[in-house]
C-alpha cells in the first residue's frame, strides 16, 4: 500500500499540473498549437447593462417603442444606438430616440420586418413590460456635426435617430426635414415631428419622394443626414456624396471574387467563394465561432488579422481597429488577396 505521504505528494502534483494545463489552454484554446496574442473574437465592445422594460407602446402600424429603465445610465448624444441582446441571444442595434438628459431610461423603437432574419419579430412577439434585457452601449457612429445649416431625410423608422438631433439643434440655425413613408399610418412620431419648433420646415411625403424637387435648393455647406431604406439612402448619397448615413442593413457582403483564408491557430486554409462570407467558411470548419448580427454592426465576430489587406464593409470598427482586425461576417480580402487570421 502506498504511504500516506506519497499519496499526498502525488495528489498535490496532479492538482498543480491540472491547474497549469487549465491556464495553458485558456492562453491558447487550440493548444498544443503555439499561443499568439490574445484574440479579440466575441468580446463585448462595451459594458453590458441589465435594464427593465417598463413601457411597450405601439407607435404606428408595425412599430413598437420600448422604454428601458435603470440607474445612472451612461450618457449619450443624438445619433447614438444601443445593442439589445434578445432572449434568444440575437444581438440587434436600435437608435436611441428619447431624451439624452434622462439618465434613468433609454427609449428605442423598432419596425417589424416580416421577411427579416428574426430580430424584429422577436422584439414584437416576445418582449413585454417587466422583462429584463441585456444592453450594450450606447455607441455613436452617426454624430451630429456642427454646421451652418442642416438637411435631414428620414424614411419610416429612420426618423428615430433624427428626432434627438432635431431637438438638439441650437436656436436660430437653419434646418429642414423631409420625412417620407409608405403611408401616414406606418410613420412613427408624426405628431411629435409636427410639434417641433419651426415645424413649417418639415415636409411629409407618403410614398416615393421627388428628391430633386424637395432638395433642389440645399444651402452650400449644409450638413445632410439620411436614415431609412437602402434605396432612399442611395438616392440621397448620389445627390450629396458627403451625406451622413445611418444604415439598418449592411452593404452587400458577397462579391469580389473568391480568396483564401488561413486560420493560423488551427493550421487550416479555407476558400471563401465570391457569393459567400468569411464567417460562413470559418463556421464550416469551426462551428463554435462566435457571431450574432451578420451585418457588421455588433462586433461579436471580430477577429485579428495577421496578414493580408482587408476590404472593410462593416459599420462599426474605428480606423485604428481596422488596422489589425476585421468583422468576418461582412468584410473580405481586398482584390482577391489572401488573409491570415488569428484563429
Automatic annotation (TrEMBL):
<keyword id="KW-0001">2Fe-2S</keyword>
<dbReference type="InterPro" id="IPR006058">
    <property type="entry name" value="2Fe2S_fd_BS"/>
</dbReference>
<dbReference type="InterPro" id="IPR017927">
    <property type="entry name" value="FAD-bd_FR_type"/>
</dbReference>
<dbReference type="InterPro" id="IPR017938">
    <property type="entry name" value="Riboflavin_synthase-like_b-brl"/>
</dbReference>
<dbReference type="Pfam" id="PF00111">
    <property type="entry name" value="Fer2"/>
</dbReference>
<dbReference type="GO" id="GO:0051537">
    <property type="term" value="F:2 iron, 2 sulfur cluster binding"/>
</dbReference>
<feature type="domain" description="FAD-binding FR-type">
    <location>
        <begin position="46"/>
        <end position="145"/>
    </location>
</feature>
<keyword id="KW-0285">Flavoprotein</keyword>
<dbReference type="InterPro" id="IPR012675">
    <property type="entry name" value="Beta-grasp_dom_sf"/>
</dbReference>
<protein>
    <submittedName>
        <fullName>2Fe-2S iron-sulfur cluster-binding protein</fullName>
    </submittedName>
</protein>
<keyword id="KW-0479">Metal-binding</keyword>
<dbReference type="GO" id="GO:0046872">
    <property type="term" value="F:metal ion binding"/>
</dbReference>
<feature type="domain" description="2Fe-2S ferredoxin-type">
    <location>
        <begin position="259"/>
        <end position="343"/>
    </location>
</feature>
<dbReference type="GO" id="GO:0016491">
    <property type="term" value="F:oxidoreductase activity"/>
</dbReference>
<keyword id="KW-0560">Oxidoreductase</keyword>
<keyword id="KW-0411">Iron-sulfur</keyword>
<dbReference type="InterPro" id="IPR001041">
    <property type="entry name" value="2Fe-2S_ferredoxin-type"/>
</dbReference>
<dbReference type="InterPro" id="IPR050415">
    <property type="entry name" value="MRET"/>
</dbReference>
<dbReference type="InterPro" id="IPR036010">
    <property type="entry name" value="2Fe-2S_ferredoxin-like_sf"/>
</dbReference>
<dbReference type="InterPro" id="IPR039261">
    <property type="entry name" value="FNR_nucleotide-bd"/>
</dbReference>
<keyword id="KW-0408">Iron</keyword>
Amino acid at each position: 500500500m502506498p504511504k500516506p505521504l506519497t499519496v499526498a505528494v502525488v495528489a498535490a502534483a496532479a492538482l498543480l499540473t491540472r491547474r497549469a494545463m487549465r491556464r495553458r489552454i485558456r492562453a491558447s484554446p487550440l493548444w498544443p498549437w503555439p499561443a499568439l496574442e490574445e484574440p479579440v473574437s466575441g468580446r463585448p465592445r462595451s459594458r453590458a447593462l441589465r435594464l427593465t422594460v417598463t413601457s411597450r407602446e405601439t407607435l404606428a402600424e408595425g412599430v413598437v417603442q420600448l422604454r428601458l429603465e435603470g440607474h445612472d445610465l451612461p450618457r449619450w448624444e443624438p445619433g447614438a444606438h444601443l445593442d439589445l441582446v434578445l432572449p434568444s441571444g440575437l444581438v440587434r442595434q436600435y437608435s436611441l430616440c428619447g431624451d439624452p438628459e434622462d439618465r434613468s431610461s433609454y427609449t428605442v423603437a423598432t419596425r417589424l420586418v416580416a421577411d427579416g432574419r428574426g430580430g424584429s419579430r422577436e422584439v414584437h412577439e416576445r418582449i413585454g413590460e417587466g422583462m429584463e434585457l441585456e444592453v450594450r452601449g450606447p455607441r455613436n457612429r452617426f454624430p451630429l456635426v456642427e454646421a451652418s445649416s442642416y438637411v435631414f431625410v428620414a424614411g419610416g423608422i429612420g426618423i428615430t435617430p433624427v428626432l434627438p438631433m432635431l431637438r438638439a439643434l441650437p436656436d436660430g440655425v437653419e434646418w429642414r426635414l423631409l420625412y417620407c413613408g409608405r403611408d401616414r399610418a406606418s410613420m412613427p412620431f408624426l405628431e411629435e415631428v409636427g410639434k417641433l419648433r419651426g415645424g413649417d420646415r418639415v415636409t411629409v411625403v407618403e410614398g416615393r419622394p421627388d428628391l430633386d424637387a424637395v432638395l433642389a435648393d440645399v444651402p452650400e455647406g449644409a450638413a445632410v443626414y439620411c436614415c431609412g431604406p437602402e434605396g432612399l439612402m442611395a438616392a440621397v448619397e448620389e445627390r450629396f456624396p458627403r451625406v451622413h448615413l445611418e444604415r439598418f442593413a449592411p452593404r452587400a457582403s458577397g462579391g469580389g471574387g473568391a480568396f483564401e483564408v488561413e486560420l493560423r491557430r488551427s493550421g487550416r486554409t479555407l476558400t471563401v467563394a465570391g457569393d459567400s462570407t468569411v464567417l460562413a467558411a470559418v463556421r464550416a470548419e469551426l462551428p463554435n465561432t462566435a457571431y450574432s448580427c451578420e451585418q457588421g454592426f455588433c462586433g461579436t465576430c471580430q477577429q485579428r488579422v495577421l496578414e493580408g489587406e482587408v476590404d472593410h464593409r462593416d459599420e462599426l470598427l474605428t480606423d485604428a481597429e481596422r488596422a489589425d482586425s476585421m468583422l468576418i461576417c461582412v468584410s473580405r480580402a481586398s482584390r482577391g488577396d489572401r488573409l491570415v487570421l488569428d484563429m
